[in-house]
Amino acid sequence: MSSPLMARCARPITSYPVITTNLWSHSIRPFSTTSTQQIRLFFPETQTKKIRVTPPAWPHPIYTEEQMQRVGISHRETRTFGDRVALAMIRLLRSGFDLVSGYRHEHAVSMHEKDPAKAEQKYRMTEEKYLIRNIFLESIAGVPGMVGGMLRHLRSLRRMKRDNGWIETLLEESFNERMHLLTFLQMAEPGFFLRLLVLGAQGVFFNAFFIAYLVNPHICHRFVGYLEEEAVITYTREIADIEAGKLPKWEHMQAPEIAVKYWNMPEGHRSMHDLLLYIRADEAKHREVNHTLGNLDWKEDPNPYVSVYRDAEKPHPGKGIEHLKPTGWERKDVV
Ligand SMILES: [Fe+2]
Ligand SMILES: [Fe+2]
């Protein structure tokens, strides 16, 4: 069977897993109420008579394989009271999120030492469980950049002052997170339960982050920095699970066309494994950007990610990941 949508896919979409996982029962599908046939028509690209293509307004920087392989898990130690508040909030959210997505890595590891078979049966992360987690994570991750950018935009209008370049980076981050979400949505369509969860979480998180950003942007950027540390951990585990042969459906799966185009994925490097390397590198970049912004004076300092430096030969913050600093750039080194 051929259709315009299937023709646009890097590989027939019928081979993508469908979210059928249910945390409570195998007979009901609360996360997906859609049949495999219908998923093929999930948000097809709009076709018009006159427009050939609508490329992204923010083209993605090119990452090399070697740069992406260098990305790893990291943690910025708390130094201030605000840092501790941000980290405590993330730990709280993480526990709730783990419960929802059935992701209990620490429990799984400790049970594995005593009873590997039981641990495998109870805690094994499947492709479907990871997709639920990724879709939920990305739907939340796209909120802070938009809220921060919007509030800085309004502040600039209201106070009739320059923003010093922060707005673009924040909006670009939320755009990038939405591209992660759209990519995962090409692999599985969420059912009613997940949609409801995303709706509820967005309602609560958007408002909470909005108020928090009005009160203290510094803590909010640190909070996002810690959130991104968690995102890097999640994607690192997914990559490791593919490499260990624990996710057979993803082993030979190709990235959807939306991803191939957005990340400019070179031929021969368009597998699910490659895709996760790109996404993890993006999260590592957000981790760096937000820890850096959390180190700055948000009222006065220029955005180091869009600035031109006097000593151009030295490494500086930029859009790529060639000089990635997992715990962020310190203020004295950039402004
Ligand atoms: Fe993301
Ligand atoms: Fe992110």
TrEMBL record:
Location(s) in or outside the cell: Mitochondrion inner membrane
Cofactor dependency: Fe cation
Co-factor note (free text): Binds 2 iron ions per subunit.
Protein's recorded name: Alternative oxidase
Listed Gene3D superfamilies: Alternative oxidase (1.20.1260.140)
Membrane topology: Multi-pass membrane protein
Membrane-crossing residue ranges in chain numbering: 131-151, 192-215
Broad enzyme group: oxidoreductase
Cellular component GO terms, alphabetical: mitochondrial inner membrane; respiratory chain complex
Taxonomic source organism: Aspergillus thermomutatus
Record family assignment: Belongs to the alternative oxidase family.
Keywords, sorted A to Z: Electron transport, Iron, Membrane, Metal-binding, Mitochondrion, Mitochondrion inner membrane, Oxidoreductase, Respiratory chain, Transit peptide, Transmembrane, Transmembrane helix, Transport
Keyword Iron: yes
GO MF term set: alternative oxidase activity; metal ion binding
Its biological purpose: Catalyzes cyanide-resistant oxygen consumption. May increase respiration when the cytochrome respiratory pathway is restricted, or in response to low temperatures.
Database matches in InterPro entries: AOX, AOX_sf
Residue positions binding Fe cation 2: E177, E228, E283, H286
BP-aspect Gene Ontology terms: alternative respiration
Keyword Transferase: no
Residues given in the record as Fe cation 1 binding sites: E138, E177, H180, E283
Top-level taxon of origin: Eukaryota
Enzyme Commission identifier(s): 1.-.-.-
